[in-house]
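Translate structure to sequence.
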């Protein structure tokens, strides 16, 4: 017969007596004092916890930041050069026209445009459209159809004096020495500049101030060269 080993019953008080008891000094228990953090430690903890303010544009801080694919400096450069237009254009006059229809008046726009390549080619176009943009585009296309070639001398001037009349407008053009410049105003100056003439003296003899007639008279005078 095996002898059964009996485990002695221990009361809760006995179990507590087996644990290490706090030391007593003068009848009082020695309590562990917690070290309070200094002010410098607290400031460092606050700095670490506070998140950095982020911009609404991303890390870059602007519209051209890192999250938006870069700004002006980070744009893609494919090596392609912007092609300059063959002709330069100048809007001389824009007017609003009206016509009577069954429902009332209908308004349109009339554009007067001069184009040229500054190498001896120049043209004047007039067109109407429901919008200013449409009228200008039509006038440019019309001017390309009526281009003329102007003979220019070595001094960037004309070869002889010419006069021309169109309607009530009358224009005179005279050659000038190198460095004189364009002595002209209004439509005559624009046409001479876009045609490539740099030295010329002109005079509008007619009393009209209509830009269309003055421009057409200048074109007629250049045709006589």
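Result:
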């Amino acid at each position: 017969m095996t002898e059964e080993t009996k485990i002695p019953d221990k009361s809760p008080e006995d179990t507590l007596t087996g644990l290490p008891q706090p030391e007593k000094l003068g009848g009082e228990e020695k309590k562990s004092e917690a070290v309070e953090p200094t002010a410098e430690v607290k400031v460092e903890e606050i700095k670490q916890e506070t998140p950095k303010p982020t911009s609404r544009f991303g890390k870059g801080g602007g519209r051209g930041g890192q999250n938006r694919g870069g700004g002006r400096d980070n744009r893609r450069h494919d090596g392609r050069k912007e092609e300059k237009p063959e002709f330069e254009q100048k809007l001389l006059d824009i007017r609003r026209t009206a016509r009577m229809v069954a429902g009332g008046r209908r308004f349109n726009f009339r554009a007067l445009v001069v184009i040229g390549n500054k190498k001896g080619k120049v043209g004047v176009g007039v067109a109407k459209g429901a919008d200013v943009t449409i009228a200008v585009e039509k006038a440019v296309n019309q001017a390309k159809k009526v281009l003329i070639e102007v003979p220019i001398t070595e001094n960037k001037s004309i070869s002889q004096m010419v006069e021309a009349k169109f309607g009530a407008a009358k224009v005179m053009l005279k050659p000038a020495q190198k460095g004189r410049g364009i002595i002209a105003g209004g439509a005559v100056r624009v046409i001479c500049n876009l045609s490539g003439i740099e030295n010329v003296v002109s005079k509008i003899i007619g009393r009209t101030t209509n830009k269309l007639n003055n421009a057409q008279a200048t074109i007629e005078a250049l045709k006589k060269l």
